[in-house]
Amino acid sequence: MRRLLLLSLLLCALEVEANQSWRIYRNSTKLEVKIAVHTSNCFRSGTSHNLFVEVGFLNDNNILIWKVTSSKISNDDLQRDMNVERVIDVPQGTIQRIEALCTSHAAYGRDKLSKYENCMINPNIVNMKLVYHSPFFELGAAWRLGDVSLSLAYDMADGQFGYNWIDFITHDNCDYDWADHSEIPSQHGHVLNFYLRIDHTTADKAEMWLPCRRFFLPGDFIAPTLISGRSGCPGFPRYRDN
Fold first, then answer.
1. Average of pLDDT values for 50-62?
2. Which region is the signal sequence (predicted)?
3. 209 or 156, which is more confident?
4. Which residues of 28-67 are buried (b: 16+ CB within 10 A; e: fewer)?
5. CB contact at 8 A, 53 and 35
6. In the sheet that 28-39 helps form, which strands lie side by side, from edge to edge?
7. 116-120, 187-191, 217-221 — which is least confidently predicted?
């Protein structure tokens, strides 16, 4: 009887393992997220503000599943036509939480592997958090992003690895898509958030969005409000085909 019970438990364990074979990143030992930010070449595109970049994944209901945040990018690196990179070495505990959240995201419906992989290695939102560092924040505050590129590199315990590269490209008309100082609140830290989102199902355009909130946390609902011109919330979409 005891042997039969042990055999049943073993078979159950094997069945669970087989049913979750699509969790190919669960043994990840390292995740490196590289962020490349290019300031536009438009006249006066530079800013006197500092910048933090948040990278994350939204589900189909616009709920933020996970995010990671870069170290500060100083205003010296955010001048006209300049490029700057930041690398996020994601801690092991955070990798495990991301994997668990993506597993839950993919657990229901068809094509679990595709949903899981998209969540793990296809971030579809970049939040740009401009923070002023001068009491004269109105001066030189406006900034125009040119584009953002992301690369994600996973190392797994079995020697396998996963890699992806994603480009977010803004509108190329210098009259649009400015992060203007008029959008910076006069309280709560003078922070301006705007974000870019890409649809991986078509992968033919990126959109710049200005949300009516100051920061994002996992589980947040990201309201679909779009930036138009130099200011405005809500606004209208601005697209550029890749």
1. 88
2. 1-18
3. 156
4. beebebebbbbbbebeebbbbbbbbbbbbbbbeeeebbbb
5. yes
6. 83-90, 28-39, 145-156, 161-169
7. 187-191
As given in the structure block, the two tokens for residue 100 are 């668990």
- Reading the block at residue 187, the tokens are 């309280």
Residue with tokens 């309280």: 187
Written as one letter, the residue type at 59 is N
pLDDT greater at residue 129 or residue 117: 117
Give me the residue label for tokens 């490029």. Answer: 83
Give the model confidence (pLDDT) of 60-110 as tens digits. 888 889 999 999 999 899 999 999 999 999 999 999 999 999 999 998 878
Q: How many CB atoms lie within 10 A of CB 75?
A: 21
Q: How many helices (H) and strands (E) does the chain have?
A: 3, 10
Q: Which residue, among 77, 78, 80, has the nearest Cα to 45 in the 3D structure?
A: 80
Angle CA 174–84–131, to nearest 5: 75
Task: Map residue 31 onto helix, strand or coil.
Answer: strand
- The per-residue b/e assignment along 102-126, b for 16 or more CB within 10 angstroms, e otherwise, is bbebbeeeeebeebbbbbbbbbbbb
For residues 116-139, give the mean pLDDT.
77
CB 64 within 8 A of CB 57: yes
Q: Which residues are CB-contacts of 160 (< 8 A; sequence separation ≥ 6)?
A: 24
The span from the CA of 16 to the CA of 226, in Å, is 43
Q: How far apart are CA 206 and CA 91, in angstroms?
A: 29
